[in-house]
Design a protein that fits this description.
Rossmann fold
């Protein structure tokens, strides 16, 4: 049986300052490094064969730390990247409200309806993340190899909703803290289910 462990990157200054890091070069805060070291300890006995992460600096840093702790190679893949909302990158939530006030209420109240030219929708994020994970599973399931996925809150929420069989409109109901772990396992039909950990 293949198990997949989903990990949100460690905390960053942007997380602490209520800024939207997006696809900026935001790095881990020292506290985030500590979080990921603790994640590594929790996953030490899980026989993880490979680590995949988004290409953003904070996810790569998290994967580097985990790879060194677990003695496992890691690879960044585009499907696990943060949602693309380029004009919000680096702004605080208050700055986004002031500059893009017509967009922000939709993002907060009904994020599944968020549609802005040049930006991704949650459904697009979900589609690419699921496609990427299915591809990775195809590479590893025959060998029953366990995988570790390091990504962002938005991407991980979309994956969890998909594998729970819930609509994307439940997006805000999924709580995933920095450095937390979610376990997925394959059932008899090969379908992944979400497990508490």
């Amino acid at each position: 049986m293949t198990n997949v462990y989903l990990v949100r990157h460690g905390i960053t200054a942007a997380n602490m300052e209520d800024r939207f890091a997006g696809r900026t070069g935001e790095e881990l805060h020292p506290g985030g490094i500590d979080q990921i070291l603790q994640v590594g300890e929790r996953l030490r006995d899980k026989n993880i064969a490979a680590i995949y992460c988004g290409p953003a600096r904070r996810t790569v840093q998290s994967a580097e730390i985990l790879g060194a702790l677990l003695n496992v190679p890691f690879s960044p893949i585009a499907e696990l990247d943060e949602i693309l909302i380029p004009h919000w990158g680096g702004l605080t939530k208050d700055e986004i409200r002031q500059k893009y006030g017509l967009e922000y209420p939709t993002w907060i109240d009904t994020p599944h309806n968020f549609t802005v030219p040049g930006c991704e929708t949650l459904k697009q994020v979900q589609d690419r993340a699921v496609e990427g994970l299915v591809r990775l599973l195809g590479d590893h399931m025959q060998k029953s190899e366990n995988l570790l996925i390091v990504s962002h809150l938005i991407v991980l929420r979309c994956l969890v909703l998909y594998y729970q069989g819930l609509e994307i409109s439940y997006f805000r109901s999924v709580q995933i803290d920095n450095g937390s772990i979610i376990s997925l396992s394959a059932d008899e039909g090969g379908w992944l289910r979400v497990n508490a950990m």
